[in-house]
Specification:
The chain is mainly alpha-helical. It has a domain of about 70 residues: Winged helix-like DNA-binding domain superfamily/Winged helix DNA-binding domain (Arc Repressor Mutant, subunit A). The longest helix has 19 residues.
Length: about 110
């Protein structure tokens, strides 16, 4: 693989991760799954969202290639798609940033 191809691939993968982390529910799912696989209903209860919201967020995370569904009889549980993701999330949690509480509240960023 050429350096240019690797760069494009890495950029796309980081963009997908950034998109996933841009939503609090998706971030909560990823953080929960770094601890252990889980059923959607358990994730919904733990994160305080409806099962429909959880289903939508898990579909997004599957589409991004970050989680995978594992059939278990009539149910399906979810786990992180790559073993490197849990340590990467742990490292991100160690990053300390100064965040202005008035900046980027809601959907609009006022920092620019």
């Amino acid at each position: 693989m050429s350096t240019a191809t690797a760069s494009v691939t890495h950029t796309a993968a980081l963009a997908r991760l950034g998109y996933a982390l841009s939503d609090a529910t998706r971030t909560g799912v990823l953080l929960a799954l770094r601890e252990a696989p889980a059923y959607p209903s358990d994730l919904a209860d733990a994160l305080g969202v409806s099962r429909q919201v959880m289903s939508n967020q898990l579909a997004c995370l599957r589409g991004c290639g970050l989680v995978e569904a594992v059939p278990d009889g009539r149910r399906t549980w979810y786990r992180l798609a790559d073993p490197h993701l849990a340590p990467a999330l742990n490292e991100l949690l160690q990053v300390v940033l100064f965040v202005d509480p008035g900046c980027c509240a809601g959907d609009s960023c006022t920092c620019a």
